[in-house]
Structure formats: C-alpha cells, structure tokens
Amino acid sequence: MALLGALVRSRSRVHRVAPEVLTNTDELERMAAGEREGIGVLSGWRRDLLGKELLALLDGRLSS
Predict the structure, then answer these.
(1) Please, is 49 exposed, middle or buried when counting C-beta atoms within 10 Å of its C-beta (0-12, 13-18, 19+)?
(2) What is residue 62's predicted lDDT score, i.e. its pLDDT?
C-alpha cells in the first residue's frame, strides 16, 4: 500500500491534480486484493494518467 500511495502522490504532483481526484484508499486496497472491476482509476483519463502504472506496479512490471 505504501508504494501505491507513493505513486499516487508522485503522479498527482507531476500532473497538478489532487490525489483524491485520482483515486482513494478504498480503490487502492481493492486493487491490491486483486480486484479490477468497478474501480474508477482504471477507467477513462485516470487510467491513462495513473491506472496503467498502478497495475504495472501490482503486476511486478514497475519498480520504484
């Protein structure tokens, strides 16, 4: 969860968007548990801005 949160904060600073606009703790916990359906950060513009990187991190394809 710490790495997911760090990635959210980093991308929010880079793109000048509040972290809570991108996602929230509930979504991150659900993603960490393996859920992929019905999670806002995995659709639309948020997927492009952050969601793909979160999935890569969870899948071991991205390291910090």
Answers:
(1) middle
(2) 80
